[in-house]
Amino acid sequence: MSTRNQVFSSDFFDTPYWWKDWRPHDELMSDVPREVDVAIVGAGYAGLSCALELAKQGLLVVVLEADVPGIGASTLSGGQVSGGVNVGKAPSGKKLDSSASEERQRALLTEASVSYDVFESILRENAIECSYVKAGRINAMWTDAHMAAWRKRIVNLNTYARAGAHMLSRDELRAELASDIYTGGVLLERAGQVHPSMMFAGLLAAARGAGVTVCSRAAVKSVTRVGAQYGIETSRGALVSRHVVICTNGYTGAAMPDLQRRVVPVVSHQIATEELPADLQRSLIPKRRGISETRRVVNYYRYSPDGKRLLFGGRARFYNLDRRQSAAILHAQMVERFPQMADVKVAYSWGGTVALTLDFLPHLGRTADGMYYALGCNGSGVVMMTYLGYKVARLIVEGQAPETSAYGTPMVTHPLYAGKPWFMPALGSYYQIRDVIDKRRQHA
User: Fold this and answer.
1) If we measure between CA atoms, which residue out of 33, 37, 47, 385 comes closest to residue 246?
2) Among 381, 410, 375, 374, CA closest to 395
3) Confidence band of 365 (pLDDT split at 50, 70, 90)
């Protein structure tokens, strides 16, 4: 048996750990209606939260899903939630766009703070049971330089994003996290965790309960402006709608070519361990925080809701891997952080596609022909995509312009990018090499 195969449990599954509690499926193959007020493309967090808010305002809404609801990233994420932590920083961990005004930075953080309020209110008002706990989150520092950069961000994060953030020395972090690989950290009190597929199931039920029609296997082939309406061709029939909202994120395809060239799909891989021995359950992350790193190629991890397994994720590679290959890479990264877990096996392995943007910010807006969109979660999908969907709904209902949102700035693209991320293997490898160099310099 190869060393790689020795990391898998005897009952290994190449499916998401979350799906053991709720798995995407066709509950009801709803017919595609002929005419609606709003047609939403994509049945993820953004699409469903948008649909739910519109339906509550009395609009006739359909959500068109190319596969089955929940098959994409919304049920595949790490389930960590926060408001504003990732706003305004590039993959290097440094401040994004140093030319941006302080006012702009404050606006982004303030609205990100609101996004967390909206997220919590949606869970509360719709009685969505998804193991939500506000246990806090630690951003673990890869180098001292990252510590210095985060010290500069703390005041704005606490003032505008209400993050409840404070620095942790190496010794303070060691009391929170049984790993010696980091130089310190930042504890963010206003953060937590959810069970992502149970959250999705609750959101789907709430939308359907409000009267939203959700159509499975209704891939959108084309959208054409016809006077004041849009004609939409799907794989299950045609319809017309007064408004169209695109919420496809990392799955934005050729039917939306202008938007496709403005988002970069990247697969994030994850594993769940077998049930941990009692001493590891108690000691790895004793306060059950969510953990994320400040590396360029980030790893993130947490306990399962029952506290019995470690869920560990990251960009294992920037090209296609099968689930055993990605699991073996993530297992090695996990053991690098926790050598005491060398004998712990992998029980589940999966991956989902997220969307990066070229300015590393989420966006909502309107296309040249008037379609709305909410795209580009940049790894903050649970809260931000839920919020952006809701916000687009409010723009439609209130007749406001996207520019009234801090995230309503135009999505940028590049002349050499047409929607296929040909550059990611090289760029990802470059980022990985830089992370290694940074750590070696730290030790030197």
Assistant:
1) 47
2) 374
3) very high
Domain boundaries, the chain: 4-438
pLDDT digits (tens, 9 = 90+) for 134-171: 999 999 999 999 999 999 999 999 999 999 999 999 99
Phi then psi for 57, rounded to 5 degrees?
A: -90, 10
Query: Around Cβ 401, how many Cβ atoms within 10 Å?
Result: 10
Q: Which residues fall within 8 angstroms of residue 260, CB to CB, at 6 or more apart?
A: 252, 253, 254, 418, 419
pTM of the predicted structure, to 2 decimals: 0.93
Exposed (0-12), middle (13-18) or buried (19+): which is 415, by Cβ within 10 Å?
A: exposed
Q: What is the DSSP letter of 89?
A: B
- In words, the CATH class of domain 4-438 is alpha beta
Take residue 172 and report the two structure tokens written for it. 């303070």
How far apart (Å, rounded) are the C-alpha atoms in residues 171 and 176? 9
Stretch 181-210: mean pLDDT: 97
* Mean per-residue pLDDT over the chain, rounded: 92
User: What tokens were used for 224?
Assistant: 């054409």
In this prediction, residue 4 has a pLDDT band, given cuts at 50, 70 and 90, of low
